[in-house]
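Lecture notes, unit on protein representations.

Consider one protein chain, 252 amino acids long.
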Amino acid sequence: MNNAQRRIGVLLPPGNVAVEREFGRYAPESVAVSYNRMSRPVSKSTKSSLLSMIPSLERAAVDLAQVHPEVILFACTSGSFLEGRGKEDEIARRITSYTGIPAITTSVAVTAALDVLGIRRAFMITPYPDDINEEEVEFLAHYGVEVPAYDSFRCEVTELTAAVPSEEVTAMALRHRREIAECDGLFISCTQLLTMDQIDRLERELDVPVVTSNQATLWAALTFLKVPTEGLAAGRLFSSARAVRPGVGTPA
């Protein structure tokens, strides 16, 4: 055994416990994933709390760079779109400026995934309070994706998001069959929300493609590395071979 593996680096909010579980299950054995956490004084689901991680970005990224990943992921959906429309790749640019390593944010990965699957109208499910939900609707609209309707668990703190079983996410989606049928696909937001084990079931039962934050983020990294994603059993997205260019919210 040795450490000569392809490697992805992941920056996480301090309380996130879902990314490691889902990446650990779905990342290919040929790819190692290393993690580091940013600082955040409180875990409230508010704009100010989410953006409070940014001052710790440089230290966390520089420390993570010491494991020599080929790409670094900023694995927080809302934390990467709340700085303003059109700035969703700014955090990735900062990471690269600190480390010299290509970087991709979850919000950029999501827009690329929606584009690859041809989703222009999406029903959205999130764990966020409604002020964050409305910010996300505007973010998606900026990239040409209409959200005609959404539902949410409206968790006030990230610990409550972590406590939502993936089966409850599926139950919420199935309650909205009619609205989802009128859309091109379903988008489930937040890297703290467990979802990936439900994607294949949802795509079968709803007959539309499904994009989730963790699925899109992992897909973006693997396609950038040109690692095959077919057969990873987490939705139609992994059958797409087009890569995501770091720092740019469109497929290559």
